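Is this the right way to post structure tokens for a design question? Let me know if I should format differently. Anyway, here goes:
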């Protein structure tokens, strides 16, 4: 049994400037994580947890996140993408196919 209904890990890994792999931090991951956390709180989703993650090894598609227990991975680049994951995945239990990795 899972402690949370949805446990979300958002990669906020940062590499040095110029690193060939890039990183999610340079693609606004911190702000998107903060936005997701604030929306989850505003919506009162008490059994949802949003945590930072290190590199999830999908750097070229970042910012990346994975949601458990489903084990579904997303590439969310904008606040609108985050809203769609919240509205469809978290609230309706429907994966957002267009954002899946
Ligand atoms: S830096 Fe985010 S997946 Fe690698």
């Amino acid at each position: 049994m899972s402690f949370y209904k949805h446990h979300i890990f958002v990669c906020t890994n940062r590499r040095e400037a110029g690193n060939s792999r890039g990183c999610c931090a340079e693609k606004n991951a911190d702000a998107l994580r903060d936005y997701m956390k604030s929306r989850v709180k505003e919506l009162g989703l008490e059994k949802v947890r949003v945590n930072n993650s290190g590199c999830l090894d999908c750097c070229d598609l970042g910012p990346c996140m994975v949601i458990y227990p489903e084990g579904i991975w997303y590439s969310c680049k904008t606040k609108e993408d985050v809203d769609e994951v919240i509205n469809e995945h978290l609230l309706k239990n429907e994966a957002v196919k267009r954002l899946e990795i």
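Format looks fine. Someone answered above. Worth noting: DSSP finds two helices and four strands in the chain. The longest helix spans residues 29-42.
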